[in-house]
Amino acid sequence: MEKTQIELLMELAADFQQQTAINNRASEQTEQRNALSTLVDLARDMQNRLDQQQNRIRQLELMVETDELTGLYNRRGFMRRTREALARAGRTGERGLMVIADLDGFKEINDQHGHAAGDAVLRHFGQNLRTHTRSDDYVARFGGDEFAILMTGSSPDAAQKRINQLKQATARFPLIWQGTPLAIRASFGYTVYDAKSDISDLIRVADHDMYGQKHASRSKPEAGEEGSDAA
């Protein structure tokens, strides 16, 4: 039986509606994909911005924790690393050494050769300490001609050996300033830290030991200085 015009028109209308629905769904899916792509791009952009911000924060933290002259940690940075080491010692039972070093005769170098030479001596000594300590030790300039080293994971039995190695390295590598070798000498004091240690007490005890070594060295005759504990 042939379809009437009305039936044909109704079929055409139904086909049109179906095709329109398909097109609408396709359009909606395209819009959803575009929206999802936009969200992904926004998320990536936000992550990049966060990464850049975190990098800037790390750079600022590094700046405020770094001694400008020597490139070592300053007191602030050293104290933070020491707190972290003590917290780690509480978890692992690790022990180590707090070392304080002070240059001998630094004022005379400044007086005789000028402050530029004094700055060069500080940089040279700081680099020497960094070169002759391990990568997991923390080296800092506290200010003036005073330096600090946190020797992580060092046993008390190895303490004097490591201190002597630093003294010998300091004596072996003088600074050549305008063609003149400037002998660099330093006094070292230390104490052992563990999980129960207090930062202020560690610094006080190591500092006291360092000044004891310095005074002992000054009080000995010139010929006997080479065998003393203070450099």
Strand order of the largest sheet: 2-3-1-6
Shape: elongated
Q: CATH superfamily membership of the largest domain, which one?
A: Reverse transcriptase/Diguanylate cyclase domain
Give the strand content: 15-25%
| Low-confidence regions | 222-231
- Total count of helical runs of at least 4 residues: 6
Protein structure class:
alpha+beta
Helix proportion:
55-70%
Largest sheet, described in full?
A: 4 strands, antiparallel
Oligomer type: single chain
Q: In CATH terms, what is the architecture of the largest domain?
A: 2-Layer Sandwich
The termini sit apart by 118 Å
CATH top level assignment of the largest domain: Alpha Beta
Total DSSP E strands = 6
Annotated CATH topology of the largest domain:
Alpha-Beta Plaits
Average pLDDT confidence is 84
**Count of spatially separate domains:** 2
- Cα-atom Rg, whole angstroms? 34 Å
